[in-house]
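New to this. Help decode the following:
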Amino acid sequence: MDAPDDPLDPEEWYGVLGVCGSCIAWKPGATRPDDTRAIGSCKLRPEMGRVPADLPKCPKYMQRGGFTYDPARAGATTRKRSKTLAVVRRGEDGQMHTRPARAPAPSVPRSAPPPVPLPFPDRAPPPKDIDLGELTSLPVIRQALVELLRAELPASRREMLARFKGGRIEAHDGAGQVETRRIEWFFSAIDRLATSLDQLELQLDRHATKLGDTKPELADALSRIRGTLTTFNVLFQHKEDHFKSK
C-alpha cells in the first residue's frame, strides 16, 4: 500500500484501497500535533474512538465510489401478455361464426419490485435461567455481567502490555482493609475513559464556532485531564495510545 503524498490530508486516503480512509463509513476528524496520519471516526463502530486512515479494513468495509447507479438496469419491467381465446358461436343462419377478439389491454410499466430483506440468521434463544454456582453474592453476579459484556461487545483497539496480563491490583484503606481486582478490569476502565476523552475532543472541534471564546478554555482543561493520566501509560502496549498533554 503506497502512502499518499500528504498523509495528514483525509481526501488523499479516499483512493487507497483496503484501509479505513477509503471506506464510506470513515469520517475525517481533527488531528493532533503528534499525528502522522489523518485521523477520523467510524460511523458504524463509534466505540473505536480515533481511527487512523491507514488502519486495515474490517468486515464492514465499504469502498468509496464502489456503488454506481445504472438507470438501464433499474428500468421498468413489462407485464407478460396473457393469451387471447377466440369465441366461436352459432349465428342465426346456423353457421359457426368467430367473434372478433378484443384488443389486448396495453401493458402498464411498473417499477422494479422492492428488495426482499434477507432473513436474520437463526440464533438460539437467550437462557431464562443462569447457574452461577453456589457463590451467588452480589460481587460474583457483577463480575459475571462484566465478563458477558466484554465477550459480546467489540474489543477496543488499545492493547495492554503483555507482561501485566493476568496481574492483580490492590487497594488499601486506612483501616487495613484490602480489595483486590484483576488488572484487566482496571485497564478496561482506563480504556473507556480514554475513548470518552477522544469523543469529547471531537465534539469540541465540531462545535468550535458555537463555543467561541470558551473553546480554548475547555480544550486546555481537557489537556490537563490527559496530563494527570500519564501515570497509566505504562499499561499500554503501543506508544500512540498514551495519554499526552498538549
Q: What stands out?
A: The beta strands are 26-28, 39-42, 51-52, 87-90, 96-99, 168-172, 178-182. The mean pLDDT is 78. Helices lie at 138-152, 183-206, 208-211, 214-228.
